[in-house]
TrEMBL record:
Its main location: endoplasmic reticulum. InterPro entries: Spc2/SPCS2 (IPR009582). This is Signal peptidase complex subunit 2. Component of the signal peptidase complex (SPC) which catalyzes the cleavage of N-terminal signal sequences from nascent proteins as they are translocated into the lumen of the endoplasmic reticulum. Enhances the enzymatic activity of SPC and facilitates the interactions between different components of the translocation site. The chain crosses the membrane at residues 40-58, 70-92. Residues 176-220 are annotated as: Disordered. One of its GO terms (biological process) is protein targeting to ER. It comes from the Eukaryota. Keywords: Endoplasmic reticulum, Membrane, Transmembrane, Transmembrane helix. It comes from Cladosporium halotolerans. PANTHER family: MICROSOMAL SIGNAL PEPTIDASE 25 KDA SUBUNIT, SIGNAL PEPTIDASE COMPLEX SUBUNIT 2.
Amino acid sequence: MAETKISPYSLPDLKNTTDDALGNYLRGIGFKQDNTKTDVKLVVGYTAVAIAGATFVADYKLGWEATKGWTAVAVAAYAILNGFFTYWLWFVEKGLVFEGSKDGKRVSIQSKTNKHDPTYYLDVTTSSSSSTPSTRQIKTPFTTWFTADGYFVAKPFQQWIASSIEAVGDVDQKSALRDERDELAAPGPQTKLTASASLGETQDVAETTSKSSKKAKKRG
């Protein structure tokens, strides 16, 4: 369970906490993360900041007349870098949470949420040296692994990931054995099963109470 709790009504908090947990889980079971796309984003961002900072210092020390030509170049470069940064976020990363590989199997996972919908969506692309990349979407409510008061519970989250993504389940078979994956990947039926079990327990209690009452009446 998480050491700190979040607001269970804040979709950004739910998503960010889950995204962090996803990366930690996959790295924890041996997936080697590929940070190439993140590194490109960081280089572009830091370069834009450096240009803005250098322009400010030059203007402060040398004055506008001496630096206005370079300032125009810096503004154009900053605009280009900022445009590339936006393109990279929206069309290359597209919500990328984790990209990495283990035992020759590569996994790329992008996450998203929809407004007013407390559901976690993952677009999962898997590939290997012997197969072409394939992409599928999986989803489930955040309540699968968040408590009502906002605490993250790791085990059901790991079971869902391992049962829904075969490459992960092959590594973490304790969380999702092959013959259990279909059941674990569908929280709906599990919920119904739990409800049925509870109903059965209630009926058993009712029957026991009824029998006890009849015995008491006979004794009386």
